[in-house]
Amino acid sequence: MPVPTTTATAMNTQHNGQDSVTRHDWSVAEVEALFATPFNDLMFQAQTVHRQHFDPNEVQVSTLLSIKTGACPEDCKYCPQSGHYNTGLKKEKLMEVQRVLEKAKQAKESGTSRFCMGAAWKNPPAKDFPYVLEMVKGVKELGLETCMTLGKLSQEQTEQLKEAGLDYYNHNLDSSKEFYDSIITTRSYSDRMETLSYVRDSGMKICSGGIVGMGETVRDRAGLLVNLANLPVHPESVPINMLVKVDGTPLGDIDDLEPFDFIRCIAVARIMMPKSHVRLSAGREEMNEQMQSMAFLAGANSIFYGECLLTTPNPAAHKDKMLFEKLGIRPERRVVKNDDSQQEASLLEQVQKKQDEALFVDAAAV
Ligand code: SF4
User: Fold this and answer.
1) What are phi and psi of 312, to 5 degrees?
2) Can you tell me whether residue 65 is helix, strand or coil?
3) How far apart are CA 114 and CA 241, in angstroms?
4) Which atom in ligand 1 lies closest to the alpha carbon of residue 75?
5) What is the pLDDT of residues 247-273, one digit of tens each?
6) Is residue 338 scored above 70 in pLDDT?
């Protein structure tokens, strides 16, 4: 099969030793052609782009905590937390601030650099919002990067979160605009885009990606990535999730995804958003070590660490530790800009990174 023109051109650019270009003008047809590139060529191109912007042997490690579980009024067909489906999930009210901070402390001791907090809401209720802001402040004071996913935000709430010290806001587009309505009917794609624009305008970083394996076409996957890459600024973090099938949800018995199709999606995301962290997100529990390694080779450089992702399973910490050791991967260290003294300490830590790779390994052995 001949290599599509766009790919050949891009590969020649790499061979000429020039940096990959950050673009915001992708067309769906062009990205479909990228998806159709022979697998080895696609992997080579993705790895080449990856090495221009990142240390290929570093992976950023985040921890995700569900701070309010279940009874969500949205009807996302993949989600066990939706109140529309009976999945037997135990509902929980908003977690106490102190408990969240204890979990964040444990996550930090385990080598995580970012603490993500998720609540199953359509939008954050006014009565709970002050506690959410306290969580952000407390986690930030621990010297961790902070991320939240709370549903749709008003402009005012976005600004308050920024003020409290929130670094990232997660708000996934899930799929293409065309496929979106067949997965979620209780909110619109334009609602999602509006919240993303509030987040960007506030100065916070964006975490936004999607899910592969919901019955979408390659064109839908291309559409999702085009909508992310054509934002005025690329999301700093792009989670690519493989559907975790949960009994009781409408997608609970959908056909399995072809693993190579998932890896292709990671590679195409890496090529299109060369400076973003692409996260190998939900679905890792279903992947063997070889598939995860291939995802890292395709340019994934972020994972969630910990045995539970909100409500679905994730590999045990010791398994991640062993995989990192086998592959020679180090957890990426991050500079958290709290105050001058913390910033200085973080910078020192960055300098010592090459000499000290024990933190993640030691913590995972506990
Ligand atoms: S994905 Fe989020 S918004 Fe959708 S049902 Fe689940 S918790 Fe609610």
Assistant:
1) -110, 155
2) strand
3) 18
4) 5
5) 999 999 999 999 999 999 999 999 999
6) no
Which one from 114, 147, 187, 330 is the annotated catalytic residue? 147
pLDDT at 312 over 70: no
Question: Which single residue is written with the structure tokens 């908003």?
Answer: 94
Which one, of 127, 131, 133, 121, lies nearest residue 95 by Cα?
131
Q: Which residues line the pocket of ligand 1, CB cutoff 6 A?
A: 72, 74, 76, 79, 81-82, 120, 151
116 catalytic? Reply is yes
**What are the tens digits of pLDDT across the range 215-224?**
999 999 999 9
Domains of the chain listed by start with CATH number: 49-365 (3.20.20.70)
Compute, in angstroms, the gap from residue 72 CA to the centroid of ligand 1. Answer: 6
Quick check: 136 pLDDT over 70? Answer: yes
Distance CA 52, CA 68 (A): 39
Least confident of 299-303, 344-348, 362-366: 362-366
172, burial (CB in 10 Å: exposed 0-12, middle 13-18, buried 19+): buried
Residues 315, 285 contacting (CB under 8 angstroms): yes
Task: Please give the structure tokens belonging to residue 278.
Answer: 């692409």
Q: What is the pTM of this model?
A: 0.82
Asked if 222 contacts 28 with a C-beta cutoff of 8 angstroms, the reply is yes
Angle between helices 358-365 and 317-327 (to 10 degrees): 150
Whether pLDDT at 85 is above 50:
yes
Specify the residue with its C-alpha closest to ligand 1, atom 2: 120
Output the six-digit token pair for 299.
């340019």
Structure tokens at 182: 């067949």
Nearest ligand 1 atom, CA 84: 5
